[in-house]
Amino acid sequence: MSRTITFFAIIAISLLAFSPLNGQESLRDRVKYVPKYKDPVLEKMKEENKQAEKKRQAETQKIRNRQEKLKDKKGKEAKRIRFDFTGVQKPASPQVFQSVFHFEPIRQYLTGTCWCFSTTSFFE
């Protein structure tokens, strides 16, 4: 029984020793608000970046305006190639042409060579 009392006494003393007895708050739990620190070097760099971005945007806009003008100009000057069919006589039918001997067409999947053509296309 005395061992149990001694054990609980040691536990109670150790708990009291590590807890604040005077009722004041500990220093580690205090919070202090301070104004946000702005590094002058970083602020200067940010301002320089903003100025450089404005210059880049202005140059980009100049280029885009110039491209738009060229696009409009090219659109107005665009020419198309047209073949002149005047004086060309159309054939009456396919029978007018001389035919050459050829085998009837066979579908590729019936020839057993479709893997060959697909592989060749892959390599090309």
Task: Give a nutshell description of this structure.
Residues 44-76 are annotated as: Disordered. With 124 residues, the protein is mainly alpha-helical. The chain is 56% helix and 0% strand.
Would you write up a description of this structure?
- The chain has 124 residues and is mostly helical.
- The chain has a domain of 35 residues.
- The chain has four helices and no strands.
- It is elongated.
Topology summary:
Layout: H1 2-18, H2 40-77, H3 108-111, H4 114-123
The unreliable regions are none
Sequence of secondary-structure elements? HHHH
Counting DSSP E segments of at least 2 residues, the number of strands comes to: 0
Structural class: mainly alpha
> How much of the residues is beta strand, in percent?
under 5%
Overall 3D shape: elongated
Rg, Å, rounded:
46 Å
Helix content: 55-70%
Largest beta-sheet details: none
> Roughly what is the average pLDDT, rounded to an integer?
82
**Beginning-to-end CA distance, first to last residue:** 95 Å
Count of separate DSSP helical elements: 4
